[in-house]
Write the structure tokens for this entry.
Amino acid sequence: MISEKRSLLLKEQAKLLALKEYKGIVKSISLSKILTLPIYIVDILTLNGEEHKVKINAQTGNILKEKTIPLTKSRAKAYALRQHKGIIESVVLTNKQYEIVILGLDGKTHSVKIDAEIDVLAQEERNVQ
């Protein structure tokens, strides 16, 4: 399998993209991962006092639209198995987050937590088309 290493956007680039979505002041910007996707999360305070979170794919610059594609249980299980190969022992949905327990091929029990509000990879697939 050939792995293509992509460079990430700079924080300043992510900030500018977020400010195109909402005019205001950037309160914070952080780089995190959702599943295997690097995401910038930009918190903006608009001029009328509203707070918004903008999530940006750090590789492509695509803005991830919230609540457009909810994550199904079956896709959450598939994503969890990508992280840890093995057998799924349980799947629990609480506070808009799946917690999936996997008995790994390494003999250890792994717990994977995945945001259930948005299917990030499906959103990215849709943005590409």
Remarks:
- Strands lie at 24-34, 37-46, 51-57, 63-64, 86-94, 97-104, 109-115.
